[in-house]
Amino acid sequence: MTIEEVKSDLKQIRYYYAHEKEFEGAIRIIGESAIKEKLELYNTWIRSAPSQLYYTYLSLYVHFNSQTVAAEDMECSVGHVKRLNRELCEFFQKETAA
What we know:
Distance between the termini: 11 Å
Shape: globular
Largest sheet: none
Helix content: over 70%
Structural class: mainly alpha
Number of domains: 1
């Protein structure tokens, strides 16, 4: 999987968590979205990540924070969050190859 594909998956995951209540409510009407399989896969992978990457995933993709908010929460610069996010994408890329 390429970095671009990982980024695309992460955008979908972020969108899901931003609208989680709607997705969960739609299960009764439409059925479960295929994004749930990706969520489970990425959530499994992140459990073995270093703690900073784990928290970056949680903040940016699960809690739907901006990089600025994540930087404030982590008490670091936005540039550092950008670096962590790049490392996170590389981590997931390696996990897909394993």
